[in-house]
Amino acid sequence: MRLRTGIVLTASAITFHVAAAMAALGVAVSSSELPAGGRVAVLLATCICAVAVATIAMNQIVYQMLAPLRTLRQALRQVGADKLDVQLPERGFLDLRILTRRFNIMAERLEQSRIVDAAHTHELERDVAERNAQLERANEQLRTLDQAKDAFLSNISHEMRTPLTSILAASEILTHFTEDDPLARLEFLQIIDREGQRLLAIIESLLEFSKMQAKAIELEVAEHDLRDMVESAVESLGKAATEKNVEVAISIQEGFYVVECDRARVEQVLVNLIDNAIKFSFPGGRVDVEMSVEAKQATVRVMDEGPGVPREKQPTMFAAFGQSSVDLTDKPQGVGLGLAISAGIANAHRGSLEFEERDWRGACFVFRLPLAAVTSPQSLTHAR
Known about the structure:
- The strands form two sheets. The protein has a five-stranded mixed β-sheet with strand order 2-4-5-7-6. The protein has a two-stranded antiparallel ribbon with strand order 1-3.
- A hairpin with a 2-residue loop joins strand 4 and strand 5 (297-303).
- The chain folds into three domains: 2-65; 144-213, Helix Hairpins (Orthogonal Bundle); 222-380, Histidine kinase-like ATPase, C-terminal domain (Heat Shock Protein 90, 2-Layer Sandwich).
- 61% of the residues lie in helices and 11% in strands.
- By secondary structure, the protein is of the alpha+beta class.
- The chain contains nine helices and seven strands; from the N terminus they run H-H-H-H-H-E-H-H-E-E-H-E-E-H-E-E.
């Protein structure tokens, strides 16, 4: 409205000045000595020139007055092309300045919104990439576990077939044995007994693992000194260490090691860890069993000088079927459930079983149990 008013006022001013000029020219021509026809011609030519000059002046003035609108139109085209960092100078009539100011505010808000949307989109893309990476890692772990499961089924089939074959062979020989040789007969009976015990141990491991999976493990909890259990486990494996020519050394820091636990279950964990360390040690090697108290937990570290655990197998070593071997020709006996069962026993005691990285070759497993709230001095006695 104000723009139109300005244009009208400008046109009126030009018309007024042209009319005044023509009136002055008419007075001058009428007082001149030109004939009437000449005066009319002069006035007519003057009027035409005046109208032409006024028209040109009006067009130029209107063009200059509408220049901000053309600039605004170009800016709108840029905004439509997603170029939002556009700011226009505020000039011209008041209406144009107000319109330009509002356009600048709109463009600034659109640019801010675009920046926020771009940041949000980048964050979403990053989240999606992280989720995809997590899914890929999870899929890789599933593939690893699936391969381990297949290896476990093959392994347990072999482990169960071997004692069964020995039992059947010894039984068949005894069935057709006609010689009166008590020592030979006793030898075959001992084979049947030994292989039967081996087969029973495999079945018990499977049943134990099944209980762990079902969280149906039962504990007979009482206060025990963990040092006694460590020494008992090492003593029970003395023959295996001697046959492998492996030294087993115990190091115990000063402190109380009384824990509330199921002694048989905890000794099962200790025997499994130390037995694994002996199995994977090279002849002439050494297994260190270190005991300490850390953060109100009795801690046992079992370290060997064997080949260690490959980094790619560390994430699944405590899962089912996670037994690691050095190579196909140096495969330890077992069905691959020892660490999984041991970890389940540790968790059932509110403790933990972890693999600890070392700078030197070999493996280090850390078994932790919470210390008991000892109520009597007698319970602190360390039986030796």
